[in-house]
Design goal:
This protein is of the alpha/beta class. It has a single domain (about 1-245), classed as TIM Barrel, CATH 3.20.20.140. It is about 30% helix and about 20% strand. The chain has eight helices and eleven strands. The strands form three sheets. The protein has a seven-stranded mixed β-sheet, sandwiched between helices. Strands 5-6 form a two-stranded antiparallel sheet. The chain has a two-stranded parallel sheet with strand order 8-9. Helix 1 (about 25-35) packs across helix 2. The radius of gyration is 16 Å and the shape is globular. The protein starts with a strand and ends with a strand. The structure holds zinc ion (2 copies). One zinc ion (ZN) binds next to loops. One zinc ion binds near residues 69 and 155.
Length: about 240
């Protein structure tokens, strides 16, 4: 077992709100520089920069898990992680098929850049990625499992775009074994207002959209090995995992 210092919620320049300097190469190398063992790229409703980030990670010597921050039909954000880029792209295709697309206005929302692992722009995503998909919170875990992945509700302490903001509770039938709190969350208070999170793995991720917001590592999971497969099994509750946030 080893303590794996992680940040499983990071946005690249593909997210409209992600800074254009948050390229796959830059964010991976910044995360490596500050000392993370494992990170995940989780752009809004798209996995199109995951391949570049995973490749950049292979070059930098940092494990990058492909993922997505899905906006459900309840306007709740749920982070989904996958063991491979192929699995992530299968999930990505499903989400695209279950989203009503509207064009992005880069002047209003920001650019949505798809890049390779050397910062070359491959294309600009034309459809706005922050719309909700027609997928309910109660289906996300099962859907992630279809693509060999895991899912956890994002920033549950936030008063907008979180499962608790939208539904009041973390629904038991949604099957989440882990939940994410934001860096500023008062976990003691959260356990009182939402006792249903007791017994779940708590994750604290940065949700950084800018390079300068990638923090020094602080949260860890004790995993038998530092691999995406092992992480996903842990997040699916397949074995007990020690953690600290
Ligand atoms: Zn979010
Ligand atoms: Zn986010």
């Amino acid at each position: 077992m080893a303590k794996v210092y992680y940040d499983f919620h990071l946005h690249s320049c593909l997210s409209p709100c992600g800074d254009n300097d948050m390229t796959p190469y830059n964010l991976v190398n910044m995360a490596k520089f500050v000392g993370f063992d494992m990170i995940a790229l989780t752009d809004h409703n798209s996995c199109l920069n995951c391949g570049a980030a995973v490749q950049a990670g292979e070059h930098a010597g940092l494990l990058v898990v492909p993922g997505m921050e899905l906006c459900t039909e309840e306007e709740a954000h749920v982070v989904c992680l996958f063991p491979s880029v192929d699995d992530a792209m299968g999930f990505h295709a499903y989400v695209q098929e279950h989203t009503i697309h509207m064009p992005n206005d880069p002047e209003v929302f920001g650019k949505q850049l798809v890049m390779d692992d050397t910062d070359k722009v491959l294309l600009e995503e034309p459809c706005l990625l922050i719309n909700s998909a027609q997928i309910s919170v109660s289906r996300v875990v099962e859907l992630a499992h279809t693509y060999h992945g895991a899912a956890f509700p994002a920033h549950i302490d936030k008063t907008a775009y979180s499962v608790i903001a939208s539904l009041g509770v973390i629904p038991e039938d949604a099957g989440f074994s882990a939940v994410e709190v934001s860096p500023s969350a008062d976990v003691g208070l959260l356990k009182k207002t939402n006792p249903e999170i007791q017994g779940k793995i708590l994750l604290r991720n940065s949700d950084a959209h800018y390079l300068e917001h990638i923090p020094d590592p602080f949260a860890w999971l004790d995993l038998p090995e530092c691999s995406a497969e092992c992480l996903i099994e842990a997040l699916n509750g397949k074995f007990f995992v020690d953690w600290d946030i």
